[in-house]
Amino acid sequence: MRVGGSRSAEFTSILTEAWHRCVTPDAAIPEGCVTVAVSLRGPEEHPEPGLDATSENVDALMTATTQAITHALIGTQAGRLLMFHAGAVAHPTTNRTVIYVAAGGTGKTTLSRFLGTRYRYLTDETVAVDAEHRALPYPKPLSIREPGKPYKTETPPHELDLLPPAGPAPVARILLLNRSDSNPDQPEIEPMDLFDAVMALVPQTSALSKMDAGLHQLADLIDATGPILKAQYREAESLLPAIAGLIGEPA
């Protein structure tokens, strides 16, 4: 991470606080990593060339930085890991995880915020699954929409009392979310057949075409963890019994 601009110290402090759970002080930089360059500049300051994100507004730059980091992360893992537009939580004792897949802006962060005080918060945006069918933690700040604000608020997980991850988490089941205010109060959850599940999941993956036999790897994950469950629901709280049924009651 490289932070520039006349207000770099200010933004570095804010960024470090928000990304606290993803920071590994004094750790060696793994081979193949890329540097994300951002700049919080003053009113009279011109943007530097070659930046991934820049702004005079802290909230705008925080949102753009989150997007840049996630994009860079996906790029470094393309062809290596199955990646979904999804959130995930894990049981605080067994570490078994449920992944909930959905398009952007359709409920992943709200559900992560609710479940994460009971289960371990892994991420609210991008889930990567390795060859051992384990979800890899990406405990980024939660991107929360607030009424009247033009930008999302990047909120550190600890400020929301979300439980920290405990390393790679074995995948117990994958949910395909369909949240709507017109859905019934009680969620409707039903298994999907393999073909329909794959067709629904593919648009919510990243760099699947770069995986060696990506569709086969996706099918293998579904075969190993059970049928994809389609969850039609209205409120995040209503899914708690279903999550508990999949990975156990929270401790």
What would you say this structure looks like, in words?
The protein has a 5-stranded mixed β-barrel, surrounded by 4 helices. Strands 1-2-3 form a 3-stranded parallel sheet, with helices on one face. It has a two-stranded antiparallel ribbon with strand order 9-10. The longest helix is centred in the first third of the chain and has 20 residues, at 58-77. A hairpin with an 8-residue loop joins strand 9 and strand 10. The model has no long low-confidence stretch (mean pLDDT 94). It is built from 6 helices and 13 strands. It has helices at residues 8-18, 58-77, 108-115, 194-201, 214-225, 240-247, and strands spanning 2-4, 37-40, 53-55, 82-90, 97-101, 120-123, 126-129, 134-136, 142-144, 153-155, 169-179, 188-191, 229-233. It folds into 2 domains: 2-77, no CATH class; 82-247, 3-Layer(aba) Sandwich (Rossmann fold). It is an alpha/beta fold. The radius of gyration is 19 Å and the shape is globular.
Give the CATH topology of the largest domain.
Answer: Rossmann fold
Biggest sheet descriptor: 5 strands, mixed, barrel
Supply the helix-strand structural class: alpha/beta
| Shape call | globular
How many β-strand runs?
13
Cross-sheet strand order for the largest sheet: 4-5-11-8-7
Low-confidence stretches: none
- The H/E string reads EHEEHEEHEEEEEEEHHEH
What's the CATH C level of the largest domain?
Answer: Alpha Beta
* CATH architecture name of the largest domain: 3-Layer(aba) Sandwich
